[in-house]
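TODO from last week: model Charged multivesicular body protein 4b.
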Amino acid sequence: MSFLGKLFGGKKEEKGPTTHEAIQKLRETEELLLKKQEFLERKIEGEIQTARKNGTKNKRAAIAALKRKKRYEKQLTQIDGTLTQIEAQREALEGANTNAQVLNTMKEAANAMKLAHKDM
């Protein structure tokens, strides 16, 4: 690093989160999105009830309720897509973590075999 870089505090390498931390964060985000999904489903049911209640008397209120319902359904679709991506990402991280553990175990076993053969 150059003198000016040291003087002004140049780039510092930031380490990313560990796989366990990333998996935990993804699970928390999944739980949050599931709660949001349930909330939106309740709101959609409420809007359907409002539309039915006002269907014959107040058409303007019924149409407004159906528009809100459609907006909530659009948000629900977006959340579904996001949940699918998060689940896939979490599963990939868990798989990579498992593979890393297996490789470490195999490396340790290979080293133990070398030691065993060395003594013969």
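Done. Helices lie at 3-7, 19-54, 59-119.
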